[in-house]
Design goal:
- The complex is a heterodimer of chains A (about 325) and B (about 30).
- With about 325 residues, chain A is of the alpha+beta class.
- In chain A, strands 7, 8, 9, 11 and 12 form a 5-stranded antiparallel β-sheet that branches. Chain A has a 3-stranded antiparallel β-sheet with strand order 6-13-10, with no helix packed on it.
- Chain A is globular, with a radius of gyration of 24 Å.
- Chain B is built from no helices and 4 strands.
- Chain B has about 30 residues and is mainly β.
- Classes of the chains: A alpha+beta (about 325), B mainly beta (about 30).
């Protein structure tokens, strides 16, 4: 470089920079991998790497809601018949969709990707377990499950989020089945209505190729809906391991009520490109809408003078769906 | 997208799950 003409050095600089940056990053990744292997060899689990505040702020500053809406609009455009099969086949191939389970296997039937995304399944494709009281409400991957402890819920192993931030404060519902707890300081205790009961949680991640409708996991009554407009960061397991309180940042719809053992809630959390959540019995719900600002929430009670119980749901009954955009 | 269930149940509630496992709609999640 010392002996090269100045022009030549300047011309090569971007290439040098790219090669050096690439090699540096590859070296860093190898070093991180080596460190993880060493920790695993010692029989220890490597600590999760959590994003710093500025990394979260940077990610949140990306206009994910706007991009998601644009993506939704694009995918709602009716495709010409000749283009449907290649476009949808590419999606099927990329995300490993099993079309044999779909109620309609003919790809020409779906006018666009949005319609394909909310495809229904053949009735016999998902037999409902009749023995156990709680079933999976959707297809997906189990990220975490267990007891809620100290008002903290596990989003993935070792990374938690605040129960109160996630559900929001208690709704002022006169007819709700939530009794005031003996210890008013504990949000968790206020949710538990019966002695000797505990609070449990389960997180299911739906991959892009999965069936994206969800159903009632048990027999219960929905008394309240709370919609949190929020960011639309990716919720894939890698990001869930990286960003603490990810589910509290993202747009979500919390349905709460009661089942035979007390409090019950199901929350649909939106994600990058999948910002719209539809609840079939809730026609007023509008998610990923520019009229709502992040950080607020909108409540709706299903308990009215005419309907004192709320909305009864049977195990396996259609409850809602995720949509693109 | 993600579905999060939070619910109250007696102490002997058992999940029939393993972390990271694939699950389909309709399969057993847990019971007493």
């Amino acid at each position: 470089l010392h002996t090269a003409p100045v022009r030549g050095v300047l011309r090569l600089r971007p290439l040098h920079f790219l090669v050096a940056a690439g090699a540096g990053y590859a070296g860093y990744r190898q070093y991180e991998k080596y460190k993880e292997q060493q920790v695993e060899k010692l029989g220890q689990e490597s600590p999760p790497k959590i994003a710093s505040d500025w990394e979260v702020s940077l990610y949140k500053s990306v206009p994910t809601r706007l991009l998601s809406r644009a993506w939704g609009r694009l995918n709602s455009v009716e495709l010409p018949n000749w283009l449907r099969k290649p476009v949808l086949s590419l999606y099927i191939w990329t995300f490993g969709v099993n079309m044999k389970e779909a109620a309609v296997e003919d790809l020409h039937h779906y006018r666009n990707l949005s319609e394909f995304f909310r495809r229904k399944l053949k009735p016999q494709a998902r037999p409902i377990c009749g023995i156990h009281s709680m079933i999976s409400p959707s297809d997906g991957k189990i990220l975490s499950f267990g007891q809620v402890k100290n008002c903290e819920v596990e989003q993935v192993k070792g990374i938690t989020y605040s129960l109160e931030s996630f559900l929001g404060p208690h709704a002022n519902t006169e007819n709700a089945d939530v009794k005031p707890a003996s210890c008013p300081d504990s949000f968790q205790k206020q949710l538990v209505t019966q002695e000797n009961n505990e609070l449990y949680h389960c997180v299911i991640y739906l991959a892009p190729g999965d069936y994206h409708c969800f159903h009632s996991p048990t027999d219960w009554t929905v008394s309240h809906r709370r919609h949190f407009p929020g960011s639309l960061m990716s919720v894939n397991p890698g990001v869930a391991r990286w960003i603490k309180e990810l589910f509290c940042h993202n747009e979500r719809v919390v349905l709460s009520g009661c089942w035979k053992h007390g409090f019950f809630s199901l929350t649909a959390v939106g994600a990058q490109n999948v910002g719209s959540i539809r609840i079939y019995f809730d026609q007023d719900l509008r998610t990923n809408s520019p009229r709502y600002s992040k950080g607020s929430y909108n409540d709706f009670s299903f308990v009215t003078n005419n309907n004192k119980e709320g909305i009864p749901m049977r195990k396996g009954e259609h409850l809602g769906e995720f949509n693109l955009g | 997208s993600t579905i999060v269930l939070i619910f109250e149940a007696p102490k002997d509630f058992i999940f029939y799950l393993k972390p990271g496992q694939k699950i389909r709609f309709g399969e057993a999640l847990g019971s007493l």
